[in-house]
Amino acid sequence: MDPTKGQAGRDVSQLLIYRPDLDGLRAFAALLDRETFSLWKFYSRRIRRIFPALLAVLAVVLIFGWFALLPKEYRALGKHVFGVAAFISNFLFWREAGYFDAARP
């Protein structure tokens, strides 16, 4: 029997397609299953998953910026890199003129 075929001869791989529209339902089901949710655990898992790649990208940007930017521009880059690493970049951008301003005709 072909392992990729189900009971009615249907291709099982078609049934196992990832559906991002169901992520919310999966999260809700996991919450009912465990009957608990920890914001701390959620963010700690997220940081462990995302932070290594984020730090690598930020390091490359800083190294490239050292050679490609003027001192004033490099200081601004350093401020923005800090904001991204601390997950407060939107607050830093908000303080900069025009970031959240409405488009003018």
Structural notes for this entry:
The protein is mainly α. The chain has one domain (12-95). The chain is 61% helix and 0% strand. It contains 4 helices and no strands. The chain has helices at 23-34, 39-68, 71-85, 89-95. α2 runs antiparallel to α3 and α3 (71-85) packs across α4. The longest helix is centred in the middle third of the chain and has 30 residues, at 39-68. The chain is elongated and about 60 Å long. 0% of the residues are buried.
Looking at the structure, what is the overall shape? elongated
Name the structural class. Answer: mainly alpha
Mean of pLDDT: 81
Q: Give a quick account of the main beta sheet: strands, pairing sense, barrel closure.
A: none
CA distance, first residue to last residue: 66 Å
Count of folded domains: 1
Keywords:
mainly alpha; about 100 residues
Secondary structure: elements and pairs:
Elements: H1 23-34, H2 39-68, H3 71-85, H4 89-95
Helix pairs in contact: 2-3, 3-4
Summarize the entry for a quick read:
This protein has 105 residues and is mostly helical. Helix content is 61%, strand content 0%.
